[in-house]
Amino acid sequence: MCGVIYSVWGHYSAVIPLANSATNLYISAIHTSGLWETDYMTTKRYAYFVSDGTGITAENVGRSLITQFPAIEFEELSLPYVDTPEKAYRAVAMINESKRGDERPIVVSTIISDEIRAIIQNADALMLDSFDAFLGPIEKELSALSNHEMGQTHNIANEQKYQSRMDAVHYSLDNDDGAQIKNYADADIILVGVSRCGKTPTCLYLALQYGIKAANYPITEDDADNFNLPRPLQAYRHKLFGLTIAPNRLAAIRHERRPNSRYSSLRQCADEVRMVEAIYRKHRIPSINTTHHSVEEISTRILAEVGIKRKML
């Protein structure tokens, strides 16, 4: 099996099969490239996110912790579906091999099985077991035992909730870039802004993460008639949320798509940003500047500002 390497926001990712493919265990290795600028030498440590399910929870918890140490360069490796003793022993061997002198790897684990957890905990590493840390106190507080079933967070056991999320994703895809304005009555929110300011990825994140039906509409210089709202949006002003962006950042993004064009020129970008911000002010449309925010931050800030309840799916 060949690994597929791709770039995501400055990280390089690869899906790598273990030497013994019979175990059916794959490692999603994410290497954080580049060094943070500091006044002293950076060091490199290994961080493993180990799970008997998708590994998404372990990754989220682990990254939230290690990003608090910007002076350290981390080699991040996700080990999902470690759900048999054989896979667990192979994972321990891999973790131990990455130890460098006295510098142990860091392991964030969300494994449910007591047998497999016991194997993983034999690794020569700093072990951060999320379930050990939290399930015990919760069981004590609730006077109840957890069911110790793996994969409860990211499965499709609740088909209604899963279908709601998939419906939202399809809605966002069908209503991207002003494609289906006839469906705006069904939208939970409609994002507006200039081309390439982050509307599409934000809509898809809102749909996939929260089951929110998010449409988006591009505002162009043709819409600048006295800074009025484009006609398709006028009936839905209460659903609108604006995105804006620094002109130089917008120009850089557009240059990747159409280099050395009027579309990507700094002057054109500055004119469009001024226009769209004037429209937001005139029509009292809430907005956020996306320049220095990730799609996760943009999405959660939008939900907090407009008061849409997050659908925890």
From TrEMBL:
<dbReference type="GO" id="GO:0016776">
    <property type="term" value="F:phosphotransferase activity, phosphate group as acceptor"/>
</dbReference>
<feature type="binding site">
    <location>
        <begin position="193"/>
        <end position="200"/>
    </location>
    <ligand>
        <name>ADP</name>
    </ligand>
</feature>
<keyword id="KW-0808">Transferase</keyword>
<dbReference type="GO" id="GO:0004674">
    <property type="term" value="F:protein serine/threonine kinase activity"/>
</dbReference>
<protein>
    <recommendedName>
        <fullName>Putative phosphoenolpyruvate synthase regulatory protein</fullName>
        <ecNumber>2.7.11.33</ecNumber>
        <ecNumber>2.7.4.28</ecNumber>
    </recommendedName>
</protein>
<dbReference type="GO" id="GO:0043531">
    <property type="term" value="F:ADP binding"/>
</dbReference>
<dbReference type="GO" id="GO:0005524">
    <property type="term" value="F:ATP binding"/>
</dbReference>
<comment type="similarity">
    <text>Belongs to the pyruvate, phosphate/water dikinase regulatory protein family. PSRP subfamily.</text>
</comment>
<dbReference type="Pfam" id="PF03618">
    <property type="entry name" value="Kinase-PPPase"/>
</dbReference>
<dbReference type="InterPro" id="IPR005177">
    <property type="entry name" value="Kinase-pyrophosphorylase"/>
</dbReference>
<dbReference type="InterPro" id="IPR026530">
    <property type="entry name" value="PSRP"/>
</dbReference>
<keyword id="KW-0547">Nucleotide-binding</keyword>
<comment type="function">
    <text>Bifunctional serine/threonine kinase and phosphorylase involved in the regulation of the phosphoenolpyruvate synthase (PEPS) by catalyzing its phosphorylation/dephosphorylation.</text>
</comment>
<keyword id="KW-0418">Kinase</keyword>
<keyword id="KW-0723">Serine/threonine-protein kinase</keyword>
